[in-house]
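Thread: Newbie trying to understand structure tokens

Hi all, I'm a second-year student working on a class project, and my supervisor (Dr. K.) asked me to get a predicted structure for one chain before our next meeting. I've only ever worked with sequences, so writing a 3D structure as a token string is new to me. If someone could post the tokens and maybe explain what I'm looking at, I'd be very grateful. Here's the chain:
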Amino acid sequence: KVKAIVFVDSFLRRVPEDEAARQKTIEGWKQFVAPLQAPNYKESAAKFIEEMFVEQTPADLRKDITSKMISTPQHVMVTAMQSMADPDLWQEEKSEIPALAVAARRKDAPVAAGAFIKSLFPRLEYVELPHCGHFLMLERPEQFNQVLTKFLKGL
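---
Reply by user tm_fold:
Sure, no problem. This is what the structure looks like when written as tokens:
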């Protein structure tokens, strides 16, 4: 039995109901994934990874994360990204299990993301950590662990 769920800087967004808009979203994902399917996919992946950091991300951490991520086999990287564009996974099903979403507070993050997750998980605790990128558990480990521990102790 699932006791709770934790989202860490997750990419959960409402999918357009309009079929033309849905197809545009799917096409956008295909264009996003295409560079990862090319022979020079490691360069493309490195650029994508770089966009997930913020100014405050330490250089040594950037280097470590990037080197580990680009060592991922190409088919694994592509499949992971393609799965996010699978319309079969876009079902908006509500769940009453306790949920925690820990997100990086960024200028480019949609404000509605927290509200959307809350619409699916009414028992959601939503926390944003400032001054960190996508890898917030590595960039702000003390803050992240404090939030996670508090949530888990409350179950």
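A couple of things are worth pointing out once you decode it. The two ends are 14 Å apart (CA to CA). The CA atoms of residues 112 and 147 lie 21 Å apart. Feel free to ask follow-ups in this thread.
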